[in-house]
Amino acid sequence: EVQLVESGGGLIQPGGSLRLSCAASGFTVNLNYMSWVRQAPGKGLEWVSVLYSGANPKYADSVKGRFTVSTDNSNNTFYLQMNSLRDEDTAVYYCAKGAYYLDVWGQGTTVTVSS
Amino acid sequence: EVVLTQSPDFQSVTPKEKVTITCRASQGIGNSLHWYQQKPNQSPKLLIKYASQSFSGVPSRFSGSGSGTDFTLTISSLEAEDAATYYCQQSGTLPFTFGPGTKVDIK
Known about the structure:
The structure holds two protein chains of two kinds.
Chain A: E1 3-7, E2 10-12, E3 18-25, E4 33-39, E5 45-52, E6 55-59, E7 67-72, E8 77-82, E9 91-97, E10 104-105, E11 109-113
Parallel strand pairs in A: 2-11
Antiparallel strand pairs in A: 1-3, 3-8, 4-5, 4-9, 5-6, 7-8, 9-10, 9-11
Chain B: E1 4-7, E2 10-13, E3 19-25, E4 33-38, E5 45-49, E6 53-54, E7 62-67, E8 70-75, E9 84-90, E10 97-98, E11 102-106
């Protein structure tokens, strides 16, 4: 069964860093396109980043220069490294399989940026 | 950036009624438009890819159409379990973007 499980969310102060993990099963992350999407409380979905088969990452302007995506082949995990966090980064973060359309989603992990 | 607008914002519908949701793109995106369903406290689920291709396992009452700038998601006969927010998403131009969502409520 194809499945994604996110972890790593939590409460972090503005300016801090956090790394989200997305553990995949049923497929190999570095052979697939992988994405991050976030959803602020009570708001709609916002595209964050895409990684094309482990290379050539792209980012939303709102996170460019602060967020970095990567994969770890040894444990089949997709990561989102978030630095210089701001209040407006508070959201549920979803990882998803795919780039153009997202056919498998994780359950989400909540990031709260607050002092 | 391609801006997607959806209409209506909210719709309250009786079971078995037909539901039509539109998504308009600020510039042409061919058929690079996808639809998702999100129920409360759940992750989004893919319904339609590339404007009109049904995703595996999605009930046949869901269908999509359109190209260029105007797209439609149709639920042919609404069921109670279809109460959700529906989002369109474009992958024609980076950054990929989502529409603001259409909430469908059951009367």
